[in-house]
Design a protein that fits this description.
Distance between the termini: 43 Å
Helix content: under 10%
Structural class: mainly beta
Largest sheet: 20 strands, parallel
Shape: globular
Strand content: over 45%
Number of helices: 1
Radius of gyration: 19 Å
Order of helices and strands: EEEEEEEEEEEEEHEEEEEEEEEEEEEEE
Length: 296
């Protein structure tokens, strides 16, 4: 099940805000999906007030023993100007972390590329139209995009200006998964026994600017920080351990993995990766690298 489900509206003058403070969640069954799911509708004009859309503070999400836990701790969509602070997620602790689980997701759903007419789209599908990313609000077969958009079948899906700080995420495939977020800051967070620490992706032609990941601790199986299609980012002063004993760990380890997209002009020269400490423990990897850059 789901602990809290919230649907809000972002406006040009004010935003419907979600505040969750000092709560604890425990998975009640093997079908526990997420502790909190919060989604906002964005005006098609693109004008959004600077008032925060959400504050998640001192919230703990835990598993019911070693048998089952939430697939996701927190799912947020179009959560402009939000803060997540002192959030804790503990997944299954028996060494069999399910693939695809995540402590925090900003931008939920699978990306399918450009919109195509006469195509069946499932709810939460994500795609691109005129370099804007949209989320499918309800399952349908596409007709004309403007008509489907006016009918509320698609919602702009990007997130802008978000802070994640002093959070702890244990036992998840992904500590944090980001899609199409602009201006996101991570600081003083801990990711333990996660396969991937932070995975950030952007699918617009120019990429999404500014991702700041500073002063965090990672103990992960495959990748500490993965960046795909982002521009003007800063990754520095982090401690990143590769640990082959982490559940779901692959045969290769990368401290920071940077990839440009086919849409972008290449890896952004205005980005910086520096002063990170990357080390390997319990090393049985085929390949282990501190930094890896690929793409155009």
């Amino acid at each position: 099940g789901i602990g809290i489900r919230f649907a809000g509206v972002l406006g040009a003058l004010e935003n419907e805000k979600l505040t969750v403070m000092r709560l604890g969640f425990r998975a009640g069954s093997a079908s526990s999906v997420a502790a909190i799911i919060a989604r906002w509708s964005v005006p098609l004009s693109g004008l959004v007030a600077a008032v925060p859309a959400c504050l998640i503070y001192d919230v703990e999400v835990g598993a019911a023993g070693a048998t089952y836990g939430f697939d996701y701790g927190l799912i947020l969509d179009a959560a402009h100007h939000g803060v997540v602070e002192k959030f804790s997620f503990y997944g299954i602790t028996n060494g069999t972390v399910p693939a695809g689980t995540a402590g925090l997701v900003i931008g939920y759903g699978t990306y399918y590329g450009d919109w195509v007419t006469s195509t069946a789209y499932a709810a939460d599908s994500r795609l691109r139209v005129s370099d804007v990313v949209y989320r499918c609000a309800t399952a349908h077969t596409s007709g004309t995009f403007a008509t489907d958009l006016a009918a509320g079948k698609w919602i702009p899906a990007s997130t802008t200006d978000f802070k994640i700080r002093d959070c702890t995420i244990h036992y998840a495939d992904y500590g944090v998964s980001l899609q199409d977020c602009e201006g996101v800051y991570f600081t003083q967070n801990t990711f333990l026994s996660c396969n991937y620490g932070i995975a950030a992706s952007a699918f617009s032609a120019g990429g999404k600017p500014y991702l700041n990941i500073t002063g965090n601790h990672f103990n992960v199986g495959t990748i500490g920080v993965s960046v795909y299609g982002m521009v003007q980012f800063f990754i520095g002063d982090n401690l990143i351990y590769g640990n082959a004993s982490v559940p779901l760990a692959g045969t290769n380890f990368y401290g920071v993995y940077i990839e440009s997209t086919p849409l972008s002009a290449g890896v952004e020269v205005q980005s910086f990766v520096r002063n990170n400490i990357v080390a390997v423990v319990n090393d049985s990897y085929t390949t282990a690298r501190g930094y890896h850059i690929t793409g155009k």
